[in-house]
Specification:
Immunoglobulin-like, 2 domains, four-stranded antiparallel beta sheet, 16 strands
Length: about 240
């Protein structure tokens, strides 16, 4: 049960980033540095009643909220705070903007923006979107204590071809390639992009290890057609085990 699936960020360099939300075991604060952000918001993408089965709260109907900056905000960061919560009655997720240059005491600070409360016509990237992120033990099960991740992207990955410029790729065609990045505390053991026949999209399989299990691992992945990205950037943090 959740009001939002993830944080969507449209950075100043035109990159689209998706950070899936989690209910952490301990306070988790992360941030995304950018200059003149184009927008960000806590988004509810899962609109299926069957995934919630809640007749009273109807989480699939909860609106997304998009922050649309007006003018130039300068350099700063979008900060995401995720607080451990025992159940759905606690609002435990918040995202906000922090400028690099703090306002001077006693001086006015102008910051203009619009708040867009959205549902079906929510602000979305023009690229393939992350639909689900699932985490489990590495497969096949081994003694290396590896972690398995399955990231589903939708089927709307735009590809360019000589016959149909701008055509959308479909599962069953040659899959896109995955550009995967991990910080030094993560060791990628396996990665593969497979067609997801159930959704018409693509699934990225990752198997990795935390070098130091007492420290987190920062991960990023993007599906690409050659050198060109065809999906938003999946951004994820593995907390300490």
């Amino acid at each position: 049960m959740h009001d939002s699936d993830g944080l969507s960020v449209h950075a100043g360099n035109d990159e689209w980033i998706w950070r899936p939300l989690v209910n952490p075991k301990r306070l988790l604060v992360t941030s995304f540095s950018t200059t003149d952000p184009r927008g960000f918001g806590l988004m509810q993408r899962d609109r299926s009643f069957g995934d919630y089965q809640d007749l009273e709260q109807r989480f699939e109907l909860r609106p997304s909220v998009w922050v649309q900056p007006k003018g130039k905000w300068g350099a700063g960061r979008i900060e995401l705070v995720q607080i451990p919560a025992p159940d759905e009655t606690n609002d435990n997720i918040v995202a906000y903007w922090v400028p690099d240059k703090a306002p001077a005491p006693g001086k006015p600070f102008d910051l203009e923006y619009r708040l867009l409360w959205e549902k079906e016509r929510a602000t979305r990237p023009p690229l393939g979107e992350v639909q689900q992120t699932r985490r489990g033990r590495g497969f096949p099960r081994t003694a290396d204590n590896s972690i398995g991740l399955a990231i589903d992207f939708d089927g709307g990955l735009k590809t360019e071809s000589k016959s149909e410029p701008g055509a959308r790729s479909e599962a069953g065609e040659k899959p896109p390639t995955a550009q995967v990045w991990s910080d030094p505390n993560g060791q990628i053991l396996e990665q593969a992009v497979l067609p997801n026949e159930a959704t018409g999209g693509w699934r990225l399989h990752l198997r990795l290890k935390q070098v130091d299990e007492a420290k987190p691992v920062e991960l990023r992945a993007t599906l690409r057609d050659g050198a060109r990205p065809v999906s938003e950037t999946w951004s994820y943090i593995l907390p300490p085990l």
